[in-house]
Amino acid sequence: xxxxxxxxxxxxxxxxxxxxxxxxxxxxxxxxxxxxxxxxxxxxxxxxxxxxxxxxxxxxxxxxxxxxxxxxxxxxxxxxxxxxxxxxxxxxxxxxxxxxxxxxxxxxxxxxxxxxxxxxxxxxxxxxxxxxxxxxxxxxxxxxxxxxxxxxxxxxxxxxxxxxxxxxxxxxxxxxxxxxxxxx
Length: 184
What we know:
Layout: H1 2-22, H2 24-30, H3 50-63, H4 67-78, H5 82-91, H6 96-108, H7 113-123, H8 128-134, H9 142-168
């Protein structure tokens, strides 16, 4: 009797495993390795510079399309461990524009990312203008202009990556073969 019960359990387990493997949608709901990243619909970086705010808002949208590529790119470009950046995205659920500024500030100011994140936790409602000042970047300074330039470069990279990924996907309007009745 125990053998029969064991075989029934084994069969049920194999069937369930096969069903999850055959349905990626079901698997993503029940066995996701990382929580989905958040894309904030009303992201307002509040840097004190309207041009920078616009670029950060656009970066927030573009980076959300291919999050893993964005995280890897930041890790490589700014030599910050990928796991630390993933923590900002997946655990803290920080908007992508804020992730970029945090990583940039940590790298540029030669401060640990944790110090920038601590400042973010305390003053995120006041905006990046206040946080950058507290971390030693003055409005209009060379460092501030460098932040604006680097943010624009990152946005361009994200847009290019998204266009390339979109071009890789086959066009769904083209169908091979015909289904249904043929016209004669």
